[in-house]
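Checklist before submission:
- one chain only
- standard amino acids only
- sequence pasted in full

Submission:
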Amino acid sequence: MKPIKVGLLGIGTVGGGTFRVLRRNQEEIARRAGRAIGIAMVADTDLDKARAAVGDFARVSADAWEVVGHPDIDIVVELIGGTGIARELVLKAIENGKQVVTANKALLATHGNEIFAAAQRRGVSVAFEAAVAGGVPIIKALREGLSGNRIEWIAGIINGTSNFILSEMRAKGKAFGDVLKEAQALGYAEADPTFDIEGIDAAHKLTILAAIGFGIPMQLSACYTEGIARLTREDIRYAEELGYRIKLLGVAKRTAQGFELRVHPTLIPAKRLIANVEGVMNAILVKGDAVGQTMYYGPGAGAEPTASAIVADLVDVTRMHTVDPRHRVPHLAFQPDLLSNLPILPMDEVETAYYLRLRVDDRPGVLADITRILADLAISIDAMVQKEPGEGEQQVDIVMLTHLTREKHIKAAIERIESLPVVRAKVTRIRLEALGAS
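Returned file contents:
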């Protein structure tokens, strides 16, 4: 059977890894796919780098449009990144009847609805396992392995840079800024780390996971996003004393009123497996009504871990190459005309528990004033610790864990607490998720 010819857009770290994995495992891949898969063309603006990476095994061009329009190319792999030219190239490849594989989470989270609709009309596939959690096969698990389940919630550590920073802050007691510099020196964080530390990268990935898990359109703009830059080592230490770890968590939940879609720092009980995921590793918990909780763990980035997912998509697309499009697995797991129209809940309506840290004057009656405000808003306290003041200090930290309450209630409580003359700093609020079996 004639080999499948792949056009690769971008031969950077991941593109080079994909080329190497395809070459190294070509016999095994052909046995799985039923025919050989090879990269026939590579497009990259750095021609010297591209030629050094692929040698004489593929034709090299500086023109990506040539690749997406070439009649011999069966599958286009987009590894350019971003949402500008990448979108145009992917849509053109689809228009030309090419199957598409991409690792571009920003592109899909932002323009996925348009891209999948175009692919549906043209009868081609868009595969994107590598767009979330690198080498962890979470897309396939949600789209196929758990298709007998009604997914109740998804919670994931899906940004390795943030997880490395929080792990180092906890293990070494370092401040956020110091660990960020260390992450940049090690190559875990970019020179501009905004996408990672402000939760934007995780929001892209969570938008994709929620769409597949719940059968809803991509809705990045509705995802509440909060990063880790304001976390302190004191909060990490206090959480540890209370039996919790702080992680940047992406949370998607099904409720009777709609879906929750949120990324933010989260206290997780230290006894949970996901709380013990350290360094740059990723982990995703999925709760299905039939299977219960399942967890998916592994490297969320890197040349060959990500290439592993890209090549898996190439194998899948090759297997389905001649199948009637109506019989393929839908892009978002559910039939495109049967997606849910339940809304994404505004953050004010989300219900969760909270960690609160207050810096207050060390005097009688302070705690009574604070608890009275919480009681007025029907917020009950699950645990509380009052720290001893340092020598000569007139102020003290009070740390509270609340039971479940709505976000709008906790915001109202914080506003009233901060107006008390005995409260000497902004209240620190971190959400808490038990992630139990229920």
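Reviewer check: The chain has a mean pLDDT of 94.
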